[in-house]
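Exercise 7b. Backbone tokens:
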């Protein structure tokens, strides 16, 4: 579909802030009015649509905030418990808990980058996750898993949309929660999530496929972090 509208705007309505295209409220794929609780988020979504070039094909890569908002409106409410479970289950095999045994430079880098995040999660949520060297699976304490699930469940439907995406992209619910809590910036989250690959690329060099993949990952992490930041306190359930 090509760009079909001329003007974008935002107004208050339907219990929040709506994005308008040519004066008409934007609707989600399920035909619900796209309404968000924070004006800054609505303005940023409107800006995505405003920045699409005239007569250009509409592409989801142009509209990352819109995609997160429509998912949070259309898909999360009807399966909220499942989304929470599918996000929280990553704690059982969180990226940060699986460390290399060699080379020593990688071991040091993983410890320096990942261990502070696990310590933050333990202090913030009471979730002390076990760390293992190598590929052997480690069963995490039930208390730690329950604490992280509770942390995920405090988020409202819109925020869950972004939190699930971030967890899936990074392989770590701890990294996703750290982004949501503004404990970890998007660039640092990318570096932590892609640590092993970036380490190998630094040693052996990059290639176009890896570069494109990392650009896509970085873009998605940036979008999720920005979405949660724009939601602010509204990301949490009242």
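Sequence design result:
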């Amino acid at each position: 579909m090509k760009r079909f509208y001329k003007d974008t705007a935002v107004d208050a309505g339907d219990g929040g802030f709506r994005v308008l295209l040519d004066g008409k409220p934007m609707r989600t794929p399920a035909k619900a009015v796209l309404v968000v609780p924070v004006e800054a988020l609505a303005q940023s979504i409107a800006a995505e649509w405003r920045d699409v070039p005239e007569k250009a094909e509409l592409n989801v890569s142009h509209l990352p905030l819109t995609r997160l908002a429509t998912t949070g409106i259309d898909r999360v409410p009807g399966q909220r418990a499942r989304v929470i479970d599918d996000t929280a289950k990553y704690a059982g095999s969180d990226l940060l808990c699986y460390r290399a045994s060699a080379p020593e430079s990688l071991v040091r880098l993983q410890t320096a980058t990942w261990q502070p995040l696990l310590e933050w999660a333990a202090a913030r949520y009471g979730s002390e996750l076990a760390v293992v060297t190598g590929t052997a699976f480690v069963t995490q304490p039930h208390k730690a898993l329950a604490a992280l699930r509770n942390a995920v469940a405090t988020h409202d439907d819109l925020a869950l949309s972004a939190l699930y995406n971030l967890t899936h992209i990074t392989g770590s619910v701890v990294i996703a929660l750290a982004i949501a809590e503004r404990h970890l910036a998007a660039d640092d989250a990318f570096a932590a999530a892609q640590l092993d690959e970036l380490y190998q690329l630094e040693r052996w060099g990059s290639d176009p496929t890896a570069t494109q993949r990392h650009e896509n990952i970085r873009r998605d992490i940036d979008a999720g972090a920005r979405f949660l930041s724009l939601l602010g306190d509204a990301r949490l359930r009242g």
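Instructor comment: The longest strand covers residues 8-13. The beta strands are 8-13, 16-21, 24-25, 35-36, 98-99, 132-133.
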